[in-house]
User: Which sequence fits this backbone?
C-alpha cells in the first residue's frame, strides 16, 4: 500500500467514525455487525474471510464424520464424546496444543495418522494436520486487512496436499491389510461418498482462493502435475 492510499484510508476512518453509530439494518436479511475495522478491509479481504470460514466449517464436518465411522479412535484420546473431541481440535489456537502429537502439525501430523507405529487418536492427528496446514496457507490468520498479503502458491499447494490426503485415506493400510481410517463406503448396497464430496469442497475452496489472490495481486501460480500416489506433499 502506498503512502497516498494509507493517508486516504486514515482520513476516511476519521470522517466515518463520527457517523458509524448511525449505521442501521434496513433489510430482513441479517449480516455480521458493522465494525470500524471493516474500513480497513478490501473486498478481497472480506471474500478471504468468508472462504476461510467455509473451509473450517467443512473441516469440522469432516472431523465429525470420521469419528462417527471410526469410534475406536475416541477411546484413544482425552475426550469421551464425538462433539467434545471435534471441539478440542478446533478450539486450539494452533497445532501446538496437543502433546500426544509431539509438536507435529500440518503434513507431519497428517503422516502420523497413517503411521503404524502411532498408537494415538488417528482422527485427531489427521484433522489437526489438515486444519493447521490450511491456516498456514492463510499465514495463520483468520481476520484480514488491507495490509495483509497472502501467497496464492501456498493456497494452491494446500489443495494438492488435500488431494494426496484423500488418496492416503482410501489406500494406506496397516500390516493386516486394514485401512488406517474408514471413510467412503463403496461395498454396500448404496455407495457413501459424502467424504469425497467434502474433500472436493475443500479442494475447490482452496483453488478458488488461490485464483482470487493471484488475480487481485497480478501474480502467477506454478501448477504442479504429479501422481497423488507418490504422496509427495508440497511445501506450505
Assistant:
Amino acid at each position: 500500500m502506498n503512502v497516498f492510499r494509507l493517508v486516504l484510508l486514515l482520513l476516511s476512518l476519521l470522517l466515518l467514525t463520527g457517523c458509524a453509530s448511525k449505521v442501521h439494518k434496513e433489510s430482513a436479511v441479517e449480516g455480521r455487525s458493522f465494525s470500524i475495522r471493516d474500513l480497513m478491509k478490501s473486498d478481497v479481504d472480506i471474500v478471504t474471510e468468508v472462504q476461510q470460514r467455509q473451509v473450517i466449517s467443512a473441516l469440522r464436518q469432516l472431523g465429525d464424520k470420521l469419528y462417527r465411522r471410526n469410534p475406536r479412535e475416541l477411546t484413544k484420546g482425552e475426550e469421551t464424546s464425538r462433539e467434545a473431541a471435534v471441539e478440542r481440535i478446533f478450539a486450539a489456537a494452533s497445532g501446538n496444543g496437543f502433546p500426544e502429537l509431539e509438536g507435529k502439525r500440518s503434513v507431519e501430523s497428517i503422516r502420523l495418522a497413517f503411521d503404524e507405529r502411532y498408537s494415538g487418536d488417528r482422527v485427531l492427528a489427521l484433522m489437526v494436520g489438515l486444519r493447521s496446514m490450511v491456516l498456514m496457507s492463510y499465514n495463520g490468520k483468520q481476520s484480514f486487512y488491507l495490509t495483509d498479503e497472502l501467497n496464492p502458491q501456498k493456497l494452491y499447494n494446500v489443495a494438492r496436499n488435500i488431494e494426496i490426503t484423500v488418496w492416503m485415506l482410501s489406500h494406506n493400510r496397516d500390516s493386516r491389510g486394514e485401512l488406517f481410517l474408514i471413510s467412503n463406503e463403496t461395498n454396500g448396497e448404496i455407495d457413501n461418498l459424502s467424504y469425497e464430496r467434502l474433500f472436493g469442497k475443500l479442494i475447490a475452496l482452496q483453488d478458488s482462493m488461490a485464483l482470487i489472490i493471484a488475480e487481485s495481486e497480478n501474480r502467477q501460480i506454478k501448477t504442479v502435475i504429479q501422481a497423488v500416489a507418490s504422496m509427495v506433499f508440497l511445501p506450505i
Summary: The mean pLDDT is 84. The chain is about 50% helix and 0% strand.
